[in-house]
Amino acid sequence: LVERGVRVVTTWLSSWDQHERLFRSMHEMLPLLDASIAALVTDLRERGLDQDVTVVVMGEFGRTPKINGNAGRDHWNEAGCVLLS
Questions:
Q1: What are the C-alpha distances in Å from 19 to residues 1, 43, 74, 79?
Q2: How far, in Å, CA of 46 to CA of 43, rounded?
Q3: Strand (E) or helix (H) holding 84
Q4: CA distance 4 to 22
Q5: pTM over 0.85
Q6: pLDDT tens-digit profile of 45-67?
Q7: 1: helix, strand or coil
Q8: Residue 49 confidence (pLDDT)
Q9: DSSP conformation letters of 22-78
Q10: How far is C-alpha 75 from the geometric centre of its chain's CA atoms?
């Protein structure tokens, strides 16, 4: 898409709303996210697009710093994180 001139590309990986069983869910999901980001950044570099494309990985809000009673984290709009490449 980027090579064809599309200016914004959005992808979505569901099931990040972990109010319970956080550690089990992250154990399953983080390897997929890690591999996907690595493949995308590598592909952009190999195609010579890494200087023209910004990769942004983020959610819409942060999570509480403490684990809740259901072994998860709740919404917390006071903080968040963003990965940029």
A1: 35, 34, 6, 17
A2: 5
A3: strand 82-84
A4: 39
A5: no
A6: 999 999 999 999 988 888 999 99
A7: coil
A8: 93
A9: HHHHHHHHHHHHHHHHHHHHHHHHHTT-TTT---EEE-SSEE-SS--TTSS--EETT
A10: 16
73 and 22 in contact (C-beta within 8 Å)? yes
- The token duo for 71 is 């072994």
Which tokens in the block code for residue 76? Answer: 């917390």
Angle at 8 between CA 18 and CA 16, to 5 degrees: 5
Produce one character per residue of 21-33: b if its CB has 16 or more CB atoms within 10 Å, e if not. ebeebeeeeeeee
Among the listed residues 49, 42, 55, the one whose alpha carbon sits nearest the alpha carbon of residue 9? 55
Q: Which two tokens stand for residue 67?
A: 């684990």
